[in-house]
Design goal:
The chain has one domain. Helix content is 80%, strand content 0%. It has two helices and no strands. Keywords: Membrane, Transmembrane, Transmembrane helix. It comes from Streptomyces nigra.
């Protein structure tokens, strides 16, 4: 969960800098990609944890 929060924080910071700084629009795009990776990571972790066999 710490990795997810870290990736989300990085995405927000990159997006914020990308919006505010002139000519750094690519940072906004990188921030969006990092956010997508973070959400995919959490989705995979949740999906794996739900498939434990019952005994």
């Amino acid at each position: 969960m710490a990795l997810f929060l870290f990736l989300l924080l990085v995405a927000v910071v990159l997006g914020f800098i990308g919006v505010l700084a002139k000519g750094l629009f690519y940072l906004l795009l990188i921030g969006v990609l990092v956010a997508l990776v973070a959400f995919l990571y959490v989705g995979v972790r949740i999906r794996r944890s739900g498939r434990r066999p019952t005994r």
